Amino acid sequence: MSSSLVRKRRISGGGVNDSQTAPTKRRLTQNNSTQSQGANTSIIQDKRCGKILLMHLTNFMCHSNLTVEFHSRVNFLVGSNGSGKSAILAALVLGLGGSARTTNRSRSAKAFIKNGETSAKIEIVLANDGAQPYEPDVYGDKIIIVRTISLSSGSYVIKSESGQVVSKKVDDLHRILMYHNVQVDNPVFVLNQDSAREFLKELEPSKNYQLFLKATQIDVVHEKLADSLHLHKDHMEELKNYEIRLKKEKEDIAEHENKLKELLSFEKLMDVLKRLEIEFAWQKVQQYENQLQEISDKLAKYDEKERELKNLIQNKDEVYQILSQEIRKDEEGMTLKNSNYDKVNREYRELKNKYDEINKLTSEFKNSLDILKKKKSRLEHQIEEIKKYIDEKSQGNQDDVETLRAQNQNETLKLRQQCESQVIPMIENIKRELKRHIDSKAQKEQIVNEIKRRQRKYLDEIRLRSGQIANVKASAKNKILIYGKHMPELLTDIRKAHSQGLLSKLPRGPIGSYVDVANSQYRDVIENSIGRGLLGAFLVNNAKDRQILENIFTKYENCRPIIITVAFSDKVYDVSGGCVNPPKDTHLLLHEIRCSDATVMNCLIDRLGIESILLTNSKEIAETITSHIENVPKNLSRVLVLKEGNSCMEYYPMPKYRMYSNKVRPANYIQINIEERIRHLENEKQSLELKNKSYETDLSQMINQISQVIKLIQEQRELLIKQQNASQEIMEKIAELDNIEYADYSNEIQLLEKEMGDYKTRLAEIEQKISETRGQLSDVDNEKIQIGGELQFKEIELQEIKNDIEAFKSTVDRKKMKLRSVNNNDSSYRVKLSEVQDVINKLKAEHMEMSRKVDACTKSAAEKGERIESDLSGNQLQDEISKKAKNKHGKPVSFDPQSMRQLIMTKKEALLANEGKYEDIKHSIYTLRQSLRFSFEFLKKLREHMSLLLQISFNMILRLRNFEGSLDVNHQQKTLKLSVKPRCHNKNAVSDTKSLSGGERSFTTAAFLLSLWSCVDHPFYFLDEYDVFTDEVNREYMTRLLIDEGRKRPLRQYSFLTPQDMALMSEDFIKILRLEEPERV
Fold first, then answer.
1. Whether residue 125 sits in one domain with residue 97
2. What residues contact residue 119 under an 8 Å CB cut-off, 6+ apart?
3. What is the DSSP string of 131-173?
4. Count of alpha carbons within 13 Å of 745, Cβ hemisphere only?
5. pLDDT at 976
6. Same-domain pairing of 715 and 574
7. Residues spanned by the domain of 111
8. Are 543 and 505 in contact (CB under 8 A)?
């Protein structure tokens, strides 16, 4: 019987068992009274993915072999201090991906390995049968997570419900935990012993606030948003740089385009220069002509003024009389026009009022006509529908309907019988065959995976044997090489460090190099008892030496021997008082080991107790001295019995008598025969190679079988689809026949004809009304047209009269002004006449001079070329001529416009691509900014909402004990202050939590935790030593409060760890698990 099978002993009923190989034993028992028949009724209600179903611990802390089966609702783990409650909580954190620091127990996971063991294993079973399971086709209703911890490394294995390995990746574990919202590093959901005590003692506002953020995950969200904000700033800086680069690229393209234009225009430069010179010459002519025209215009204007002034002076009296008569005549005409305007305006208003009334009447007639037309259309449609229906029904016959009904019923019956007797049984048979083939394929694939696993295992063993053979061969020259090829260099570095004074004493190691066993028959079992890990270990004198040695180890890859700190001594312990006196035919393990160093021997005594272990070849002797307490020698801890082959028996004496069978590997370190060891290893390697080769044939055959099964599955699926389609067609025919409606012609046609007659009568009445309304509308329209014409005529007449009046007024005003000027300005006219005549003489002289200049410039310009009109000014033309003249002397040496065009095209394409990237970055930044704004606003609202919910829940829980209190959240100062007044309504009562008693403080803490639980959701909640500082009254209130929480929330799993014993009423949703008292030394 193997050791693994012997050690696992579970109590019936789903309790917990812990059978240990060490002297200290613990056992967890179950209170069966807490379970009732009503448990089955809540199976469906409390199912949820992520709950803990089972935990199995092997060599973890104080547990050698512990199995815990959890209830899906409420669990109480009861046990005194030292019984291993907190070890279960630490195993939960480590097993579900948490770090060793999270447990507050150690910084390294290897520290959780039980003393004397080299590895530990944590197995956790998660529920996957609730709503939204994780990949149920792969894992099934359970997910099994196994974490193995060794002295040098660790690993994860994720299995399905059937035990099949699905993954060994930590990332897959994180995905599963994230999918089920499992957060073992959140103290709100998993509160360990140290955190609980610290929390109970302090209740600091700042730490309370951090716990609130941690529980609601607001701190994680805020951190992610802060990272996004930094990312947004980086992108904005990148966008600015991109914008500057685009601007430079555009300027570069413009510069190259100007150069191209200059290259292309150089050939025409001379023509352009000549044209510009001609334009400049004629531009000068144009300037003189314009000046000459301006002088001529001024001269004509002053001539006209001269004539007017002379006329005014000569005809003053005559003009005055004529103007006065014209003014009186115009005023009389204007008065007459005003009277006509008033008359026509009255007539226009009367016509306008009448026209508005007719417009209103026209709209009323049109609305009435539209309503009547709609009624007529509806009636005509209803009459047409009735007539059509009557015609259709008249063509049929009731006998034909009944005959059709009977035919359809017979057809439906035949189709149903065909479907039930032929198609459905065939589909079921095909499904069974398909399932059988699929199951066969799955089994064969499982076999293939098992073969591949064994092949990998054998290949690893073959490589291991090859390495061992090489090490053994090398150790023939240097024995220390058996511990690894790096060991000589490592020992050299250790001696060098000691010689430099870095080490207080020279470390001892590897330990196996100091150990010899004279009796060859016990050599294998003694090496296995000591363990290869301990044989390869090093001993140091103090913690400082340990640190130096660890630094030396880091220089060598894959070199991490065990380091044991022990005070060095020159003398071996005196163990005569605790040594076993070996009976006949037995040997004491202490006497069989020869050790060349006292410190190494003392280490073996401390760690293995070799002075209390006996060796024998007789199973009967071992059973005799261990199975009866009177025969047990004093100080005996165990007996090792050598058996033939590669195994030994291990007996533990009464009163804890038990026996184990252990596999013994050949000695690899202690006094080995090199040739025999090499021969043995080569035989093992050859045997492994033969086994591996045999699996290759099996694998090939199995793969061929799987290909054949896949082909059969495909054929069955095609046949299934064909039959399902046939079944679907039959069911559609049946539904079509069942949905046929059969008419009944009894009195329906007569009623319809009567109804149609009523509709026709109403239709005639409406047509009569329509005819009358149209006549009235026509009369009104005619009258409207007539009045509209008159109204338009009056508008034209009023406008003409108004225009005449304005003309009269303008004429009168102008003549009155002229009359005043005639009376008042006679002397001024004479002065002005003299001034105007002087100006005229001056302008005539200028006109003659300018005419000579025009003639001279025109002759000069004509000699250069024909006249060209220019839009540029003289200065602009002169600047262009100077620029072109300079360019004429700077003709480029290399003239290649095509290369310049290609370069510009390339730069434009690059610019277009960069502008596209720029727009993409700009849009992304805008989207990120909008998202960040929304997220920060939502986070603020969420924080306020959670604070309010927390305050309400906290006050409600305090009222259960008639406590008064408040929970003040200050998001600016990042504090959460609890104020509680226990059963005291005095306004001046102290409300600080530090002034509360231990029980009141514990109840306040529990109320705060429950308030946090009400704000968030998690599959399970673990609370360690929640009642450590409380009294019996508050403990009872808190326990009742926690149980009530579990009763109200069946979808959550609660586990409470307490050192106090529990006495609860029998409830179907509560399970009490008790740990046995630890043995005290």
1. yes
2. 59, 113, 148, 149, 150, 151
3. SS-SSHHHHTTEEEEEEEEESS-EEEEEE-TTS-EEE--HHHH
4. 14
5. 84
6. no
7. 3-186+1060-1075
8. no
Joined tokens for residue 464: 């291991």
Question: Which amino acid is residue 134, in one-letter code?
Answer: Y
Which CATH number covers residue 408?
Answer: 1.10.287
CB 568 within 8 A of CB 498: no
Of residues 193, 220, 214, the one with CA closest to residue 1015 = 214
Rounded distance between C-alpha atoms, residue 590 and residue 601, angstroms: 9
Distance CA 251, CA 253 (A): 5
- 94 C-beta neighbours (distance < 10 Å), count: 24
3-state SS, residue 724: helix
Number of separate helices (H) and strands (E) present in the chain: 25, 23
Residue 716 forms part of a structural domain? yes
Q: Residue 224 falls within a domain, yes or no?
A: no
* Residue 672 pLDDT: 59
- State the Cα–Cα distance between residues 651 and 733, nearest whole angstrom: 79
- 718 and 571 in a single domain? The answer is no
Give the pLDDT score at 166.
93
- Two structure tokens written together for 274: 């000549």
126 and 13, same domain (yes or no): yes
Tell me the torsion sign for CA atoms 152, 450, 456, 684. positive
Contact of 169 with 156, CB cutoff 8 Å: yes
Residue 703 CA to chain centroid, in angstroms?
Answer: 41
Q: How many domains does the chain have?
A: 3
DSSP letter, residue 421 = I
Q: Is residue 766 part of a domain?
A: no
Asked if residue 472 is part of any domain, the answer here is yes
Instruction: Return the structure tokens found at 909.
Output: 């394409």
Question: Over the range 51-66, which residues count as b (16 or more CB within 10 Å of their CB) and which as e?
Answer: bbbbbbbbbbbbbbbb
**CB distance 215 to 1015 below 8 Å:** yes
Peptide bond into 510 cis (omega under 30): yes
Residues 415 and 445 in one domain: yes
Report the 10 Å Cβ neighbour count for 588: 17
Q: Give me the amino acid identity at 412.
A: T
Residue stretches of the chain with pLDDT short of 50: 1-44, 893, 990, 1080-1081
Task: State the residue for tokens 């059973």.
Answer: 623
Q: CA-CA distances (angstroms) from residue 984 to 776, 793, 929, 999?
A: 94, 100, 52, 16
Q: What is the DSSP letter of 111?
A: G
| Interacting residues of 538 by C-beta distance below 8 A, sequence separation 6+ | 507, 508, 509, 510, 511, 549, 561, 562, 563, 564
639 and 522 housed in the same domain: yes
694 shares its domain with 638: no
Identity of the residue numbered 1002: S
Choose the final residue of a domain: 639, 668, 697. Answer: 668
1020: left (phi over 0), alpha (psi -120 to 50) or beta: beta
SS3 878: helix
User: What is the C-alpha separation between 52 and 130, in angstroms, rounded?
Assistant: 13
CATH number of the domain at 142, please: 3.40.50.300
Q: Of 299, 678, 701, whose CA–CA distance to 473 is shortest?
A: 678
Per the DSSP assignment, residues forming a β-bridge with 613 are 638
| Dihedral over Cα of 350, 352, 357, 358: its sign | positive
DSSP per-residue string spanning 203-241: --HHHHHHHHHHHHTHHHHHHHHHHHHHHHHHHHHHHHH
Instruction: Please give the model's pTM, rounded to 2 decimal places.
Output: 0.41
Any idea what the Cα angle at residue 59 is, between residues 55 and 63, rounded to 5°?
Answer: 65
Q: What is the DSSP letter of 643?
A: -
Instruction: Say yes or no: 529 and 614 in one domain.
Output: yes
End-to-end CA distance of the chain: 32
Three-class SS state of 65: strand
**Cα–Cα distance, 925 to 921 (Å, whole number):** 6
Closest C-alpha to 32, from 12, 47, 2? 12
Residue that terminates a domain, selected from 668, 699, 727: 668
